[in-house]
Amino acid sequence: MKHARLSIVIASLGVATVLSGCNGSSSTGGLVGGVAGGGQDFETAFNAVSQKAPTSDMPTSLKASYEGQMKVGVNSGSAQIFGTDIDANSAEIIGDLAVDVDWTDGQTTNPFTGTASNIVATEAGTSNSVKLDGTLTVDQGLPASLSRTTIPAQVVAGVNVPEQNTGAMLFHMSGRLSNGENEGDATLQFGGNFMGPGAESMLGPVSGGINDVNNPSPQIFDAGVGGTFYANKK
Description:
Layout: H1 2-22, H2 42-50, E1 61-77, E2 91-104, E3 112-123, E4 129-132, E5 136-138, E6 145-151, E7 154-156, E8 159-161, E9 164-179, E10 182-195, E11 201-212, E12 223-233
Antiparallel strand pairs: 1-2, 1-12, 2-3, 3-4, 3-5, 5-9, 6-9, 7-8, 9-10, 10-11, 11-12
């Protein structure tokens, strides 16, 4: 069954994202342009967050709401959901993120809720775009975690470096998107680090894909996607 294969792939993607998040790395997936799903230039806002230092004072509890955007490009396969006006292999997708966090250090249950909405797909280098109807929500059935890591105070080259407490996160969103009669089930994984003082922002890679609802295939994803996201505390 396709759902079984999806579970295996998502679990594997989770390991990769956690590792990349801990290393502080991210990938834009070769995306270009600034097509805004929500009226804000993605690159400008993303760069502003990426220029912040990783959080060094991660609290032991966090209850906050974050808003931002995701931007992903299709890196494999194709999907009918983009219709005939957009080359699926050149599609870039931007959506608005609203993520709530309710977490205490040591918590094992999913601390995330939230949505991705106002999702727009654009053919790279053109003005061809389509609004994908539907909303993705944080999937409580898929892995999620928020971790706090303490780096003890130390002396480096004769300089006293104070204790640091960093934060990393992982969660998934899923849902059905549509473009006219074309429908696709999307599953996306978000992972990365908290940035700025007091975990004021989140930043990291996005991976996953879209499966055509009415076009079953042996592929895990009819369109595999990858990119980045950012979110700032409200």
